[in-house]
Amino acid sequence: MPSWLDDWLNPSVQAALVAAAVAAGGWVHNGRQNRLAAARQRSERVADVQRAILAEIRAHVVALENQQTTDAWRRDMVARVRQGGYVPTLPSEANDRIFRAIISEVHLLPAGVIDPVVIYYRLLAVMAFLAANLAALAAQDAARAADMLEDYLSLADEVLDSGRFAMLILSASLDGGDAAVDAMLHAGDRAQQDMLEAEVAALAQNLPRELQEMRERLNRRSSDRSGL
């Protein structure tokens, strides 16, 4: 028998080889288990974030639904502001505490969920901005304050619609994941779904311009004064 074979048949060598094989197998198994655990934890965290956001949006959507007014009431309110001497009390709270708390984790949300959620909260921020600045503007320029109130009331409708849409997307995602979101977007009347998707796209495209125009209205009185 060759001498080198004696070395391999040595019980000490065989024991070392078995131990190395077991260690390598354990490393592979542990690595796989760790990856599965990490994936499971991430999935649970994503679901928790979606539930929290859904709860916050649902609460504000219900509040907006309860605050809905008639066109006649809105015209009367705007006319009173335009006449001067009247400033309506508008809620300036953005109702986004949960969203701000998890803003750093928004990228974890499924791709189909991010846009509707972000658009809703951006509109909500603009709405709060208008409410916070209306009183100050009304004291200086009643006509422009009335224009801002019209923007605010119109934006409230957009926030309500975008909130409802975000709720549908979040609920579908929580119930069935990406497949359920895709199914919801493509089910039923295709024309109606195209309209919903077009509205969301339009909101995303026009929001920066609308916000800039609103800010310019606020700053215009300073420009007018400088021209006197």
Descriptive key words:
mainly alpha, 7 helices, 228 residues, 0% strand, elongated
Provide a short characterization of the protein structure.
With 228 residues, the protein is an all-alpha fold. 85% of the residues lie in helices and 0% in strands. Helix 5 (111-140) packs parallel to helix 7 (190-226).
Protein topology:
Blueprint: H1 3-9, H2 11-66, H3 71-83, H4 97-101, H5 111-140, H6 142-186, H7 190-226
Notes on the protein architecture:
By secondary structure, this protein is an all-alpha fold. 85% of the residues lie in helices and 0% in strands. It is built from 7 helices and no strands. Helix 6 runs antiparallel to helix 7. The longest helix is centred in the N-terminal third of the chain and has 56 residues, at 11-66. The chain is elongated and about 100 Å long. The relative contact order is 0.10.
The total beta strand count reads: 0
How many DSSP helices? 7
Please summarize the sheet with the most strands. Answer: none
- Inertia-based shape: elongated
In round numbers, the mean pLDDT is 76
Percent of sequence in beta strands: under 5%
